[in-house]
Amino acid sequence: MASLYRGKVWADVEVYCEVWVESRSIAGVVRQDCEELAVSLYPAGGFSSISFAYEAARYINEEHDGRALVIFYIGDYDPAGVLIDVAIEQEIRRHLDPDVRMRFVRLGITKEQVTQYDLPTKPRKDKEKRSRHITETVEAEAMPAGIMRALLRDAIEALLPADALEVAKAAEESERNYLRQLADMLPSPKDE
Questions:
Q1: Most CB atoms within 10 A, among 3, 12, 18, 147?
Q2: Which domains does the chain have, with CATH numbers?
Q3: What CA–CA distance (Å, rounded) separates 47 from 87?
Q4: Where do the H-state alpha helices sit in the chain?
Q5: Residue 82: what are its φ and ψ, rounded to 5°?
Q6: Residue closest to 22 by CA, chosen among 70, 69, 88, 79
Q7: What is the DSSP letter of 101?
Q8: Are 102 and 69 in contact (CB under 8 A)?
Q9: What residues contact residue 68 under an 8 Å CB cut-off, 6+ apart?
């Protein structure tokens, strides 16, 4: 139990944060940061995630404790990719209770990031009819992992008080030590 105990990073914060990503491969890149920062991570899976968004909204409504919700989204910059997050946001909002305040932020990939980080592009497919303004596409996996993780960490940590992570880690270690001490006091199976 001691190894599973987590400190409450978000206990005194006025927002609740989630991270949604377009694919499982991106989830693999940011998973460790989400775990460390005690943020839920949802690999959305493209447009198929619309029913998933409905279920997520139901869960948010059930667990709502008055805090605002912030969702950071990472997905491809392509004709479908720039519409997926819009569809997910709309579906979540459609099913949220009126008292739930939500901010939905596309953290990546954006048009500006393509230029800023000189990300490798591919020409859009001629047959693609959506989002005509996108002439070149970029997969989220093209963003260097270190940059993506730093962007996400910075965005999440900006929601937390300056020392929240350190305080939670100290409390976590203290509680883990206490649980270990309790375990040491219990008779071992061979003593019985």
A1: 18
A2: 14-161 (3.40.1360)
A3: 8
A4: 24-36, 50-63, 81-95, 111-116, 145-157, 164-185
A5: -80, -5
A6: 88
A7: -
A8: yes
A9: 14, 15, 16, 101, 102, 103
